[in-house]
Specification:
Strands 8-7-6-9-10-17-19-20 form an eight-stranded mixed β-sheet, with helices on both faces. A six-stranded parallel β-sheet has the order 13-14-12-11-15-16. The chain has a two-stranded antiparallel sheet with strand order 1-2. It has two domains: 11-258, 3-Layer(aba) Sandwich (Aldehyde Dehydrogenase, Chain A, domain 1); 264-412, 3-Layer(aba) Sandwich (Aldehyde Dehydrogenase, Chain A, domain 2). With 468 residues, the chain is of the alpha/beta class. It contains 15 helices and 20 strands.
Length: 468
């Protein structure tokens, strides 16, 4: 089967538009790295493949540690200048970048479709959330930085591939508003072309941004431990996050390390099945490739039959690996090789990775419990999570149970998410290390206040949580 493409959406056409918009960021058959204030054609080329059909999109030059170190030193010089730039000027340059990014919105979204397989609607939402969120910070930044100073060095950003704009670029623009130069590493699994175009537009607006590519293992020492780095912002899994945290132990650097957690939805003394069905169905958006997806359902034993009925009606295939032949929205003759059908597993063994870790895909696990203690133990199986929810008719009981859940945000009969604008975001237990972000907390995390300030976050000597 061949791909069926709408007019103007082919990769060659999309790439041509990107090159025409930001020619400085592209070489003949590969991307360039934004280092030392210029787009340089250096590094060892590595193919970037699309998850849509596996073809090569372009080449990504990977830098070695020596070249990355030079880029960090230059970013530190820019940081000193930017930190002394008046707030009004910083705001004006960020607004100019927002205007340019807004004009390129559809192109950035289409790049995400090809690079990471994000559906068009969700790709547009990724770009829109980034830009709308930064616009809110523009209106709040004067209040947020009052009495605070930029960090002593640039912020190093290392993020996963799934939300290049609404997580990585959004964070960078806020860090810039707060007076910090920024360094970003392109995710190895996708998003590099979109980020290249975005950073070219940001650089044109006069923002001190650095974008480089390379092996995480080779560049970690530079991007995490270099003396010039003022803070490290990491989004990813616990394995790599743990390595970053370990590398920071003796540095006293500011850090925000978001790691995976097994977000669980408990079902206890519950009867509002129609409402839950809608949440279960919507939860499969983006193939559950979100840090706040709910891959674990912990269900009271006497409610299991009703819960399974709800799951079937909601589109999931409980206790079965689904197929794509009858999937809604699939066209006759459509190439479905890039799609993965949902699956659900009942009672994974205690030794199974699925029992304790996030699958990061359209796989649900269902655990059956008979007591409140068993419910809490199963929901807390991953030693900390970003979000959790309880489906429970008794609001008082739900509130009581919620207090013992190891999740940063808990929803009662509704899901919780990262949130936008003023909403804080973080994690409990092993799902987060360092300062929390979101709303005012993001600005506080990348600025310096009073000497005895205790930021909200998880630190070696204390944990402090805001109202969520």
């Amino acid at each position: 089967m061949t791909l069926r493409l709408a007019a103007g959406t082919a990769w060659d056409e999309t790439l041509r538009r990107a090159v025409e918009l930001t020619p400085e960021a592209f070489a003949d058959d590969r991307l360039r790295n934004l280092v030392s204030g210029a787009w340089l054609d250096s590094g060892t080329p590595s193919p970037l493949r699309t998850p849509v059909d596996g073809t090569v999109l372009t080449q990504l030059p990977r830098l070695d540690a020596e070249k990355a170190s030079a880029a960090v030193r230059f970013a530190a010089q820019e940081h000193r200048t930017w930190a002394g730039t008046p707030l009004a000027e910083r705001v004006a340059r960020v607004e100019a970048a927002l205007e340019a990014l807004t004009s390129a919105r559809d192109l950035l979204a289409m790049l995400l479709v090809w690079e990471i397989g994000k559906p068009w609607r969700l790709a547009c939402a990724d770009v829109d959330r980034a830009l709308d969120g930064v616009r809110w910070y523009v209106t709040q930044i004067e209040r947020q930085v009052a009495g605070r100073d930029p960090l002593p060095g640039p912020v190093s950003n290392i993020a996963s591939w799934n939300y290049p704009m609404s997580v990585l670029v959004h964070a960078e623009l806020v860090q810039l508003l707060a007076g910090n130069a920024v360094i970003a590493k392109t995710p190895s699994q996708g998003g590099a072309v979109c980020l290249t175009v975005a950073h070219a537009l940001m650089r044109r607006a006069g923002l001190p941004v650095t974008l480089l590519s390379g092996s995480g293992e080779e560049l970690s020492e530079v991007l995490v431990r270099a003396a010039e780095i003022g803070a490290v912002a990491f989004v990813g899994g616990r394995s790599n996050g743990g390595k970053v945290a370990a590398a920071l132990l003796d540095t006293d650097k500011r850090h925000m390390i978001e790691q995976e957690g097994l977000n669980a939805w408990g079902v206890w003394e519950f009867s509002q099945w129609d409402a839950l069905a809608a949440h279960v169905k919507k939860g499969f958006e983006y193939g559950k490739q979100r840090c706040t997806a709910y891959p674990r359902f912990v269900v009271q034993g006497e409610l299991v039959d009703k819960f399974l009925d709800v799951s079937i009606k909601a589109g999931a295939i409980p206790l079965h690996r689904g197929g794509l032949a009858d999937a809604a929205g699939v066209l006759d003759g459509q190439d479905t090789s890039a799609y993965v059908a949902p699956a659900a597993l009942l009672a994974p063994p205690g030794r199974s990775r699925l029992m304790h870790a996030e699958p990061f895909g359209p796989v649900d696990t269902i655990v059956v419990v008979d007591t409140e203690d068993e419910l809490l133990a199963a929901m807390n199986a991953s030693n900390g999570a970003l979000v959790a929810s309880l489906a429970c008719d008794n609001a008082e009981l739900a509130g009581k149970l919620a207090k013992d859940l190891q999740a940063f945000k808990v929803g009662i009969n509704k899901p919780r998410s990262r949130g936008d604008r003023e909403e804080p975001f973080g994690g409990r237990g092993a799902s987060w290390k360092g300062a929390f972000v979101g709303g005012d907390l993001l600005v506080h995390a990348v600025t310096v206040g009073e000497p005895d300030e205790r930021l909200y976050g998880n630190f070696p000597d204390y944990s402090s949580y805001p109202t969520t």
